[in-house]
Here is the input.
Amino acid sequence: MSIDISIIVVNHNHGEFIEQCLNSCVASLEQVRGEIIVVDNCSTDGSKALLKNFGGKISVIHNEVRAGFSANNNKAIRAARGEYLFILNPDTSFSASSMKDLINIARSTKNLGLLAPQLIYPDGSVQPSCRRFPTIGSFIARRTPLRGFFEHSKANEKHLMLEGGAHPEGKVDWVLGACMLIPRTVFDAIGLFDERFFLYVEDIDLCYQIGLHGLDVIYTTRCQVMHHHLAESDHTFFGKRSWYHFNSMIRFVLKYKFRYNYLGL
Here is the structure.
């Protein structure tokens, strides 16, 4: 039987956040027909025990071998039954009406490829979550040791789509993958996440593919989701996660080659 929404959460040692996230998910399904699918990616922090507390309210896929973000989400998408798929980070929470609100917005939006709610920090301030597609300039400004010099630059504002202040509701290039509502028909048309992206850039690639298929990525301010935004690749330039980010960006460049505007002209 088809249902309104499948909420998909990948957990890897997110015991600090996962319970609050899943409590939000469970409460939201009191207003819409849905399911919650959690992929546990070989967690070792005790969060597996937390998942058991939710009993039949969630379905859990246990990995025997650790997999990447794309592969984990694809496992859940293949098992999902929803008209819409909601890809959600475990460090998020939201009001009980959020799923109903997002579905209503999605059903009233023409040419929809992806719908992203406004993200907020735990203190309630708006978290910039819209981006222009990356260029050589934005990569230098945001992913090299020169980042500190460009933090408050016009180039950084342009990349974050903040030239006029907070971004208004409407069409954008791409959004952070922390929470994305995607019609199942979109995955049917473009395929699932590209599993060559182990971690990072899979959200850019998904949004780029959506655009190539003539659909829109829409950012809405009519629904908010709190996101802790761990941003672990931002903490060091030479750590493992920074390497994952750099490696994924290289894969993106090689995937699209001369079809992509790397200069942003």
Q: What stands out?
A: The chain is about 35% helix and 25% strand.
